[in-house]
Design goal:
- By secondary structure, the chain is an alpha+beta fold.
- It is 34% helix and 17% strand.
- Strands 1, 2, 3, 6 and 7 form a five-stranded antiparallel beta sheet that branches.
- The longest helix has 27 residues.
- It is globular and about 45 Å long.
- The two termini are 45 Å apart.
């Protein structure tokens, strides 16, 4: 499983959690079966592009970013992203190779050495890929109790960091975005939504924003370093955008501030304490 496939799987699982639909109910709302969704959401196979679009529709999520992520994951999955080594580099190496003469007294064809190098490179890729698969498919001890994805599948995707190790890192790439809690949601005067999220598994919080405008910025902190994200383009404006994570634990106060692109607009902040009711937003 590639890193992009892992990230795509994490986002799809988050979307499914937001719909609060069982796999059976999800299959009734889409053109894909319960067993197909079990494979897609457990990372065992890459979903078709149409399945990603249908899940976005069910979750009322703009599909722009998810489809872009799917394109990258599919390219890696299919091998189309593999780039062959430049020929000049291989040519530069050849004069340094001292090949023994063949029994007939003539030198072996250079292609045989190149072929050996390709075989060795392929073998290394298989070994590395196998190790990566083992690392990603770790036991998930805190899987949803209401409905396991499959009784016959004891493995699922586990978080890749915890606490301080998550500081500033992408919640989706680190798989902290699977089943997080929502601390508070705040609607800004410009119509954007800012949401504070918390993952108990990762011991970290982050902010996500949607409905924002190009140039808007959101930052988050839990008393330590602050991490921000800026709405860069139309794709960002049409879907979720996430800040980096900040280490948090029960009792931590997490604060998110929204800074509109317009210079004459006020900064708006919202905060919540992990494990307690959300605080109201404020302007400054």
């Amino acid at each position: 499983m590639t890193a992009e496939h892992t990230r795509l799987t994490a986002v799809l699982r988050e979307l499914r959690d937001r719909t609060d639909l069982s796999l059976a109910a999800l299959s009734q709302r889409t053109t894909y079966s319960k067993s197909s969704w079990e494979r897609y959401l457990n990372g065992k196979s890459l979903p078709p592009r149409q399945a990603v679009r249908e899940l976005c529709q069910v979750a009322k999520e703009p599909d722009g970013r998810l489809l872009a992520l799917w394109e990258i994951a599919e390219s890696d999955w299919s091998g189309r992203a593999a780039v062959p080594a430049p020929v000049p580099a291989a040519e530069e190496l050849r004069p340094q190779l001292q090949e023994p003469p063949s029994p007939s007294g003539t030198r072996r064809p250079r292609g045989s050495m190149s072929g050996l190098m390709v075989v060795l490179a392929s073998a290394c890729a298989v070994v590395v890929g196998g190790v990566a698969l083992v690392l990603f498919l770790l036991p998930d001890r805190e899987a949803r109790e209401g409905e396991p994805l499959s009784a016959s599948t004891p493995y699922s995707l586990a978080p890749q960091c915890h606490g301080a190790a998550c500081e500033g890192r992408d919640p989706m790439r680190m798989l902290c975005g699977i089943g997080p809690g929502t601390l508070t949601t705040y609607r800004t005067t410009t119509g954007a939504h800012v949401e504070l999220r918390y993952s108990k598994k990762c011991g970290a919080s982050w902010a996500r924003v949607w409905g924002a405008r190009i140039g808007d910025r959101v930052e988050v902190t839990a008393g330590g370093p602050s991490h921000s994200v800026r709405i860069m383009d139309a794709v960002d404006a049409e879907t979720y955008v996430y800040t980096g994570m900040t280490a948090a634990q029960p009792g931590s106060t997490v604060r998110a501030c929204f800074r509109p692109a317009s210079a004459d607009s006020e900064r708006e902040c919202a905060e919540a304490r992990v494990g307690e009711a959300a605080a109201t937003g404020s302007r400054s």
